[in-house]
Every structure is written in C-alpha cells, then in structure tokens.
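fyi for ur records
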Amino acid sequence: MFKSIAFPAMCLTLYSVAFSQERQCPESSVMGKMAGANSVAGLKAWKIKAGDSYRAQVIFAARMLEVDPTNRSMAELLLNLIPKDSDDPHQAVWLELDELSQCSSGGGTTSELKALDLLQYHLPRLLARAVLLVPNHMTDYVTYAEFALTPESDYALQMQRVCKREHRKFRAALDSLPVKDIAWFKKEVINPENCKALYFPEQ
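which gave:
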C-alpha cells in the first residue's frame, strides 16, 4: 500500500520540479531577447515581459546604455546595481548573465545566447560609460575593480579613459579606499598617475 502511494507521489514531485525548470526557460529566453533588442521601444517591451528581477535590471540597464549611450538614468541604475562586496550574492549575475543553458529543455536560441554573452563581454565598457555620465558613483566604480578583474575582463583597460577624463574624481575615489586596497590597486589594476592599465585580459 505504501509503495503504491509513494511512487505516484514521487513522480508528481519530479514532474513538478521539471515543470518548474521548463517554466523558467521562456523567462530566461526573454532575457536573451532583451539583451539583443535594437531600439528603446523594443527594449522596454521586452523588459515588461522579463520582470523586475536583479538580473533583468542589469541586462536592461546595460543594453539601454548601448542603445541610448547618453541615458543618465540608466547609467545611474547600472552603477547602483554594482555588487558592494564579495559576499553580495548578486556578484554571480555579473559573471554569468547567461543562465539559459540551465534550462532542462536546453535553453534559448543561439542568437539569444550570443546576445547575452556579448552584453556580458561589454559590461566593463558600459560601466566606464556609466560612471562618466554619473561621476558621483566613482567610488563604487573604483571599488568594483576588485571583483571585476576576471581573466576575460578588460575592466582596467576601460578604466583608463575614466581615469583620464575624470582624473580628480578618480584619484579622490581611490584615495578614499583603505590603505591596503590602494596599494593593491596601484600594483595590480592601474597607475593613477599616468592612467596606464596594469591588468590585461588573457588573449
């Protein structure tokens, strides 16, 4: 009797998990479509479908800065979303915008995956653009270098133009960091005197 009840219950549980995973696939696919939108109107339309999750906000703000490069509100939103420390669970989002492959159905289309991968690759450039539009977030931008310097990241290279164009604010932000962080930054990231990058992505 127990087996006859337990087996259908187990099957129902497994089905529910699988259904939940499948249901998330269209949502993840929308993220890819949003990352590939080519107009402000199209981007906003996909954002409505994507919802207000942290990941959706990052993708929306970043892509909006590509479509509308002078949008200060999107620049501020993107900078406000920067993880503040290594314990921030949202850090994983910045390192892997693409979660489509986790869908049990195999994820989205090639174009959706490509759009997300390309947007993630452009994040360092977009953050540099954002902080030049909204330089009062300079400390957040400088601090994030500690977490942004992955082997593929050109964060330090993109930071060169920020250092040159907003040198006074850049130096002030750097000088506000703890002494040990300043020493690490000057040794590993960028020379604040001549704004030359010291960290380069792997070829």
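Residues 25-197 form one domain. thats all i got for now
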